[in-house]
Amino acid sequence: MRVIDELVANAARYAECYECPGAPSEPRLKLAIVTCMDARFDVWSVLGLRHGDAHVIRNAGGVVTADTRRSLAISQRLLETTEIMIIHHTDCGATKITEDEFREAVFRDTGIRPDWAAEAFPKDPNGDVVQSIARIRADELIPQRQRVYGFVWDVETGELRRVKA
Amino acid sequence: MRVIDELVANAARYAECYECPGAPSEPRLKLAIVTCMDARFDVWSVLGLRHGDAHVIRNAGGVVTADTRRSLAISQRLLETTEIMIIHHTDCGATKITEDEFREAVFRDTGIRPDWAAEAFPKDPNGDVVQSIARIRADELIPQRQRVYGFVWDVETGELRRVKA
Fold first, then answer.
1. A interface test, pick of B6, B50, B70, B76 with most A CB neighbours within 10 Å
2. Which residues are bridge partners to B57 per DSSP?
3. Which residues of A touch B114 (CB under 8 A)?
4. For residues A41 and A160, is the Cβ–Cβ distance under 8 A?
5. What is the pLDDT of residue A1?
6. DSSP SS3 for B103
7. B165 contacts in A (CB within 8 Å)?
C-alpha cells in the first residue's frame, strides 16, 4: 500500500490547487486518442493536451479491440467526437511475444488458455497502426470513420511520426 | 486535420526537449491503473506520475472488460506489475445512459444491435468500482489479484476518494 499512499498524497496536493475549469464531458477538440498503456508515454504532455481536450483510450499495445470500438462508439455517439488518432510506439511489449508463446505460458501456469488474443504484433509497429485503422473503418457501429490518423511515438527520441494508411 | 496538425506540432516541441530517461518498459511502481477515457482526467498530473511509473489502461467508463483483463494479464505476466488501481469519476458518460436506450439508439441508426454491453452504470460510481474489483478477483488469468484498490475522482473538486471494496 506504500505506493498507493504516495499517489493518494500526490492527488491531495493536486486537489488543493484544482480550480474546476467547468469543461463539459464532450471533448473540446472532438477527438478520441487510442494508444498503449506504456508507462513511458505521457500522452497529455507529448500532445500538449489541456483539460477537457480529448478522450484517451489505452490498452496493452494500443490495439483496436472490441472494447476499443465500444469506447469509440460511445465517444462519438454520446460525446460528439469525430476524429480518431491511433498512436503505437517503439519498444512495445506487444512486439516481444507471439500469440502461441503467450497462450502456452498462461496454460502452463493456470491450466487455462485465454479465450482472447494477446494482440501481439511484429517489431515494426507501423503495420499494426495500418491494420488498426482498417479495424475501425470496418466497424459500422462507429459513426465517423473517415478521419482516422495513425502515428508511431519513438520512446528513444520522443518523436511522433505519422503513418500513412 | 487542423486539430491533428496542432497536436503534431506540440509533439515536435515535446521531442525537442525530450531527454530519453532510459526507463525500462517494466513500470517502476509495479502498478497498473484502470480508468475512464474522460477528457478532464489527467491521470499523470492527478497522481503525480513520472516517466516510467505505471501502466495506464483507459476506456469508456474505466470499466473492467475482457480487454481490460487482457491488458492486466499482459501487464503482470510480461511487465511485472503487482498492484492495480481502479479509478472511476463523477459526471461520467457511463452514468447517463441505460443499456436498453443505447442499444435501441444504435439499432435505429444502423440496423444493428451491438454485440457488446455499453457498460452503463448507475449515477453513484462507487458501486461500479466495487464490482470492477470483483471482476478482477474472479479472473484467474490475472496472477496478482489481492492488491486491487478502488477510487472515485471528483471532477468538481479534483479530489480522489478511496472506495472500500
1. B70
2. B34
3. 70, 73, 141
4. no
5. 67
6. helix
7. none
Residue B49 three-state SS: coil
Facing residue for A37 by CB, picked from B4, B8, B56: B56
User: Over the Cα atoms of chain B, what is R_g?
Assistant: 18
- Residue B39 grid cell: 477528457
Amino acid at position A154, single letter:
D
Which of A44, A97, A147 is nearest residue B42 as measured by Cβ atoms? Answer: A44
- Burial of residue A56 (CB within 10 Å: 0-12, 13-18, 19+) is buried
- Beta carbon pairs, A and B, within 8 Å: 247
Beta carbons of B163 and B148 less than 8 angstroms apart: no
- N- to C-terminal Cα separation, chain B: 44
pTM of the model: 0.97
Q: What is the pLDDT of residues B1-54, one digit of tens each?
A: 689 999 999 999 999 999 878 899 999 999 999 999 999 999 999 999 999 999
Q: Chain-centre distance of CA A38, in angstroms?
A: 9
For residues B146 and B136, give the distance between their C-alpha atoms in angstroms, rounded to a whole number. Answer: 9
Asked if B49 and A41 count as a contact pair (C-beta separation under 8 A), the reply is: no
CB contacts, 8 Å: B97 with chain A: 78
Q: Is the ipTM of this complex over 0.90?
A: yes
B contacts of A140 (beta carbons < 8 Å)? 110, 112
Residue type, B103: R
